[in-house]
Design goal:
Layout: E1 3-11, E2 24-31, E3 35-40, H1 46-53, E4 61-65, E5 74-77, H2 90-100, H3 105-118, H4 134-146, E6 152-156, H5 164-179, E7 183-187, H6 191-196, E8 199-204, E9 207-213, H7 214-221
Parallel strand pairs: 3-7, 3-8, 5-6, 6-7
Antiparallel strand pairs: 1-2, 1-4, 8-9
Helix pairs in contact: 2-3, 2-4
Bound molecules: adenosine-5'-diphosphate and magnesium ion.
Length: 223
Amino acid sequence: MSAILLQNILFSYIENMQNSSFRMDINLEIPIAKWVTITGDCGSGKTTLIKLLAGLLKPGKGNIFYPDNLNNDIGYIFQNPDNQFVHFNIERDVAYKLENQGMKFSYMRPKVKKSLEEVNLWERRNDSPNQLSGGQKQQLALAGMLISDPQVVIFDEPTSFLDIVARQKLFQKTRKLVNEKRSVIWSTHEEDVIRQSDYVIELKAGKVSFAGKSRKYLCRKNV
Ligand SMILES: Nc1ncnc2c1ncn2[C@@H]1O[C@H](COP(=O)(O)OP(=O)(O)O)[C@@H](O)[C@H]1O
Ligand SMILES: [Mg+2]
């Protein structure tokens, strides 16, 4: 199986309550080893879908099937990077996932250094994440997520605080991950992200309104 399957998924935030009109109702196949964008208006359900994929929300009905080889190896970063930090020290924060895997310090140190250098934060390693700017926090969250090489990488609007240079680097990094047969799922409303991606899922009010190749999506949208 080369896709993540979402079968007859139903989800609402407050079951059986009338004031919660949002209801997610989807059937979807998300191709793996591709750059997939999830797009749609504000409130269409992008973040909800991402949280379902990451296992942070449970569907009321239906099932999500991941290919066996992905082995639940999912990394995600959220729109607000403040929620991601676990340490008051940047170096320890980036090392956290590797520490959890029980990696030896001598193996860990060079990996941590490389990750932090990639996002220009090695010099800041002894500072607290709280001392960083919004863009730097997002970069730190990225470094901390990518350090363990997850098979599936999920970004929820990761470019919201990034400057042009950091954006370009993230585009390159994403393409590199996909070339290495990893899956990137990226929620965005930006057309230049969609343009560079392979596959688009568009949501409208909790339902899938388009799923297909990016080229086809852009073609339909611009006629
Ligand atoms: N924790 C929550 N409780 C109740 N409703 C929520 C919650 N989070 C999001 N919603 C509602 O669910 C809908 C979809 O939100 P979301 O998935 O964040 O959309 P998007 O990411 O596309 O902007 C919106 O109507 C939003 O108000
Ligand atoms: Mg969102």
